[in-house]
Automatic annotation (TrEMBL):
Residue ranges, annotated region (Disordered): 1-23, 100-129, 266-312
Organism: Haptolina ericina
UniProt keyword terms in alphabetical order: Cytoplasm, Cytoskeleton, Repeat
GO cellular component: cytoskeleton
Protein name, entry field: EFHB C-terminal EF-hand domain-containing protein
Residue stretches making up the EFHB C-terminal EF-hand domain: 326-376
Main location: cytoplasm
Compartment(s) where it occurs, according to its Swiss-Prot or TrEMBL record: Cytoplasm, Cytoskeleton
Length: 430
């Protein structure tokens, strides 16, 4: 034991064996942990001008302490007596002293002290009428009256059987409804049917399925766990081990499937990103479109109908323009500005008569009416109305070729008249 080393010094090393203080020229670079100390930057620690900022807040006046303001309860019996003497001059203390109610000084007559308010009613007059009205007594109803209520109102007593008055007949004797039980009696071997179905182990004929366990665990149980109905094995004698039995654990075994493989060892197909990754689940906010969707405006606007009179500035293709074959092999009248659609336009009778007469034909009204009748008949023959027996088969060869050629000649003549050719001979067309 060292000289001068006592138990007190050993228990209180911070008091008797204090650490040497930090030099003043190094103290300014260390962090100050003293409560209430001002933290300054090392560069201004030696400045004397900062000493005037050493005191923060208002200076506490002399005579007023914080503990006196917060803890204003008397600390002794003398202080309590002085406090009571100071409070006794107030009217509220005299009128309502602590622990006593406020006495107003009213005096009630002696009649009101012993009797209750109001005038009592004699018991022989009132009796238990109110009680009988609120809780009437139940009387015993006779059997005849009860049967009448059962018949008229079906007023059965609690637990009473609803007997409808039927006469039950059997082969041997009449049936008493109060003692009769429906169904067949349960035989001796049919007991516990539901219980055996829910718990098959109750059935003696039930064969338990084989329980597959680990062989290592079963060998451990054979050596360490006591068997039911057998003497505890102390490890002596024959253990009934096979010649191939090896004690201890194998130094290296095949890897077993465990939690690690269930969590991380998944197939390459499962490692692919989800199909909806990056897609919003809200319709209307999805940033991907189906592969069959085509963006932009279509070249041929077949989704909208073409205007009746197309503007010159309208360059939109409505599906009525010529295709590539028509561009490579233009029709006969394309040079004149006449398209195939112009031949299919409907013309009135007056317009056709004006076209033929302007071209030099001596077309009378009778010929015009006959031509229109032939054309109308030809158009009618191409419809289901041509199956009518009123139209004879002998008129088909005579009417169809002539009317069709005449109608085509009329349409072509009118188109050429529009382009500026007058007095053309359509004999080549006929």
């Amino acid at each position: 034991e060292d000289a001068g080393q006592t138990a007190e010094k050993t228990m209180k090393p911070d008091v008797f064996d204090q650490a040497p203080p930090t030099p003043p020229h190094i103290q300014k670079y260390r962090k100050e942990f003293t409560p209430g100390a001002i933290c300054r930057h090392p560069g201004v620690a030696d400045d004397r001008d900062y000493e005037r900022l050493g005191t923060y807040g208002r200076v506490e006046p002399v005579g007023v302490k914080v503990h006196e303001v917060l803890n204003n309860a008397p600390t002794s019996y003398l202080m309590h007596t002085l406090e009571e003497k100071k409070e006794s001059i107030y009217l509220s203390h005299k009128r309502e002293p602590l622990g006593k109610p406020y006495v107003r000084g009213h005096q009630l007559p002696p009649e009101l002290r012993n009797e209750g308010f109001g005038r009592p009613t004699p018991q022989d007059i009132s009796g238990d009428q109110s009680k009988e009205l609120l809780h009437p007594r139940e009387r015993i109803m006779p059997e005849e009256e009860h049967r009448m209520y059962v018949k008229s109102h079906a007023n059965y007593d609690p637990g009473e059987q609803r007997h409808r008055g039927y006469t039950w007949k059997a082969k041997d004797s009449p049936i008493d409804p109060a003692m009769y039980r429906f169904g067949a009696a349960v035989g001796e071997g049919e007991l516990l049917g539901v219980a055996k179905a829910m718990n098959p182990s109750l059935d003696d004929k039930y064969k338990r399925p084989a329980v597959v366990v680990d062989k290592t665990l079963e060998d451990f149980r054979d050596l360490s766990v006591e068997s039911l109905g057998k003497v505890k094995s102390l490890g002596h004698g024959d253990r009934n081990l096979t010649p191939a039995h090896v004690f201890g654990l194998a130094s290296q075994r095949d890897p077993e499937w465990g939690v690690r493989e269930c969590i991380g060892n998944y197939t390459p197909e499962e490692q692919q990103p989800d199909k909806d990754l990056g897609r919003s689940v809200r319709p209307g906010w999805r940033n991907t479109a189906p592969p069959s969707r085509t963006f932009g405006v279509p070249s041929i606007r077949s989704d909208i109908s073409a205007p009746g009179q197309k503007s010159v500035a309208d360059h939109q293709n409505y599906g009525n323009e010529a295709d590539a074959f028509a561009l490579l092999y233009p029709p006969r009248f394309t040079d004149g500005g006449v398209s195939q659609a112009d031949f299919l336009e409907a013309q009135s009778k007056d317009e056709l008569a004006d076209i033929f007469r302007s071209a030099g034909f001596d077309l009378t009204d009778e010929h015009l009416e006959d031509a229109f009748a032939r054309v109308a008949l030809s158009a009618l023959m191409n419809t289901p109305a041509a199956c009518d027996p009123a139209f004879g088969p002998a008129c088909y060869p005579a009417l169809l070729p002539t009317s069709s050629r005449l109608y085509l000649a009329v349409c072509r003549q009118r188109l050429w008249m529009r382009r500026g050719w007058s007095r053309c001979n359509p004999s080549g067309w006929l």
